[in-house]
Amino acid sequence: QVQLTESGGGMVQAGDSLTLSCNASSRAFGDTTMSLAWFRQAPGQDREFVASISKNTGATSYADSVTGRFTISKDNTKKTVSLRMYSLRPEDTAVYYCATKRFCRSAYESWGRGTQVTVTS
Predict the structure, then answer these.
(1) What is the tens place of the pLDDT at every residue in 21-49?
(2) What gap in Å lies between CA 96 and CA 11, rounded to an integer?
(3) CA atoms of 21 and 5, how far apart (whole Å)
């Protein structure tokens, strides 16, 4: 399976920016058509989709709540997925997870352990 490790989380003020990174380590990562994504989960809330990018085409998708503020990117050579977050709001406070899945799968298959993002007023 793909092993994922997130980094870059921290505590910031509302309006600040933060960039999260996810490093992947697996031979399967480079051998298959993949979707790379970020999810987040606040305490007591369900995990929600944030953004995704196709490893093969670069096509992106964003949740309505982050469109225009967050940007997802990838580096296939370095096996990294990044999430640049701008104009952060307290509502963005959550544990952020990176995830991957093969194109033919409906559910994401590999998950990182998460990195905490806290946005203060």
Answers:
(1) 999 987 766 667 899 999 999 999 999 99
(2) 13
(3) 8
Residue type, 118: T
Alpha carbons within 13 angstroms on the beta-carbon side of residue 16 total 15
From edge to edge, which strands make up the β-sheet containing 70-75?
3-7, 18-25, 80-85, 70-75
Tokens of 112: 């990182």
Give 98's contacts (C-beta < 8 A, 6+ positions apart): 4, 6, 20, 22, 36, 37, 38, 39, 81, 111, 112
Distance, CA of 117 to CA of 95 (rounded, Å) = 6
d(CA 70, CA 42): 17
